[in-house]
Specification:
This protein has 185 residues and is of the alpha/beta class. The chain has six helices and eight strands, in the order βββαβαβαββααβα. The protein has helices at 37-47, 71-82, 100-107, 130-140, 149-155, 177-184; strands at residues 11-15, 31-32, 35-36, 53-56, 86-92, 114-117, 120-128, 159-161. The strands form two sheets. Strands 4-1-5-7-6-8 form a six-stranded mixed beta sheet, sandwiched between helices. It has a two-stranded antiparallel ribbon with strand order 2-3. α1 (37-47) packs across α3 and α2 (71-82) crosses α4 (130-140). The two termini are 25 Å apart. Mean pLDDT is 92; it is low at 1-6.
Amino acid sequence: MATAEHNTPVTGLILAGGRSSRMGRDKAQLRWQGLTMLEHMRRQLAQAGARPVLVSGDRDGAIADRWPHAGPIGALTSVADALDDAELLIVPVDMPRLSAALLARLAANERAAAVHYADHVLPLRLRLDETTRQVLRALMARPPRERRLRALVQALHGVALPVPVDARPQLANANTPEQWQEMCA
């Protein structure tokens, strides 16, 4: 079991509020290694040292999206309104190969308000504070096409960690039935 070695506790957050329209069914309920993707991602975050692990989306016990269909920025703005200041370790629900070890590396990195892997905005370590809340509110005021996680990371002067060569497959999303079948093969 990989655990994070960091000073500041991190709260895990699974983004599970999408429509799964390209998949054709709820990605959070897909089965991976005997668990639903929601359960699998919860376990990966916990093994990486995240406590507690929360879920964003319209699900039982989750932080509801106040701006349905506003994407990850809408979800994070809803989370920011619901939580006190915190260090978040954020994952999408559709990254089945993501390991606890790769997450622990992000969890341990406290260099910036936003830390991610190069060429990938998720997973993301995000410092939730008043500065981040202001950036999120400003992004929500933009047209939908401009509400991007990349814009959030850029505004917070995010740090991009290099992706270990052997870890690249871990950062693949499953958005379509074909991608899911390929990952399960």
